[in-house]
Design a protein that fits this description.
The chain is α/β, with parallel strands linked by helices. The protein contains ten helices and ten strands. α1 runs antiparallel to α3 and α4 packs across α9. The chain has three domains: 107 residues, GMP Synthetase, Chain A, domain 3 (2-Layer Sandwich); 88 residues, 2-Layer Sandwich (Histidine-containing Protein, Chain: A), CATH 3.30.1340; 67 residues, Histidine-containing Protein, Chain: A (2-Layer Sandwich). It is globular. β5 and β6 form a beta hairpin. The strands form three sheets. Strands 1, 2, 3 and 4 form a four-stranded mixed beta sheet that branches. A three-stranded mixed beta sheet has the order 5-6-7, with helices on one face.
Length: 279
């Protein structure tokens, strides 16, 4: 299925479900919201280069996503669950996806998004990384992508923040170039506001940022990274302590995975002892 058709299909599916009699009989507002969530999850699958080759069905009820269909291995099955959990409004996943190593991917592979992401998806990925990172979440940064060239505009309060925003954008799949037009402002009171923001961020991290949220954001950030094959890295979180396991191709990739995880809001510590470097 062509990329645009896949998006149109996901959107149309949400619209059809929202208007169907079965949905309209009970609680129309709730049913429309669930239909929109179904469309959001389906679109996320269509845009994910590891999942779009497979036919995965989604049904949402009471903020729980039921996933059915077939993928070729357990990694893809777990990835589908994490992608669904990353959608705002999805609190739980009932993962009934079957595994079949002989599943036919031929039709989908011909139109796979493995080689590139469109500009809208790239913009969304960069914005997400900036929002999830504890050091850039509150900054006034606009993101625009044209022909895989990302332009950052807005104001930040330090060279470090400017460089971090550029690094997060540059290390995103689909990005060929970053034009960093961020302006550093040294207005009176900036230091005070920065301290207040840091204090608020610490309070937010200490508050109920769920382990499910942390896990999904770390996993998604790893998948967005152009320098990592995030599908080979498993992520778990307990009370803000994140454990990375699996394999990477170099020590640099291992260090990058740790850095990405440490930057996510709510993460206290990162244990990468089970993240092996393939020689």
């Amino acid at each position: 299925m062509h990329k645009l058709k896949a998006l149109a299909y996901a959107t149309a599916t949400a619209g059809i479900l929202a208007l169907s009699p079965a949905h309209a009989q009970t609680n129309p507002n709730n049913d429309v919201a669930e239909a929109r969530l179904e469309g959001s999850v389906a679109t996320a699958f269509a845009l994910n280069r590891h999942l779009n080759p497979f036919r995965i069905q989604v049904a949402v009820e009471d903020q729980t996503a039921l996933l059915t269909g077939t993928v070729e291995n357990g990694v893809n099955r777990n990835l589908a669950e994490q992608v669904a959990l990353s959608i705002e409004g999805i609190d739980r996943v009932n993962n009934q996806i079957a595994i079949d190593t002989n599943v036919d991917q031929s039709d989908a592979q011909r139109t796979s998004l493995a080689n590139s992401l469109d500009d809208a998806t790239t913009t969304a990925a960069v914005k997400s990384k900036l929002l999830w990172n504890r050091y850039t979440q509150g900054l006034d940064i606009d993101v625009d992508t044209h022909n895989s060239v990302v332009t950052l505009t807005g104001a930040v309060d330090s060279d470090a923040a400017r460089e971090l925003a550029e690094r997060l954008a540059r290390n995103t799949r689909g990005v060929l170039e970053v034009r960093n037009n961020l302006v550093i402002t040294y207005e009176p009171g900036t230091a005070v506001r920065a301290q207040q923001a840091a204090g608020q961020a610490a309070e937010d991290a200490a508050d109920a940022v769920s382990d499910a949220w942390i896990t999904s954001k770390v996993k998604s950030s790893l998948l967005f990274s152009r320098s990592l094959d995030g599908v080979n890295i498993s992520v778990t979180s307990r009370a803000g302590d994140v454990t990375l396991s699996g394999s990477v191709d170099s020590e640099q990739s291992r260090e990058l995975a740790i850095e990405i995880a440490q930057g996510i809001r709510g993460v206290n510590n990162v244990d990468a002892g089970a993240l092996d470097v393939l020689r």
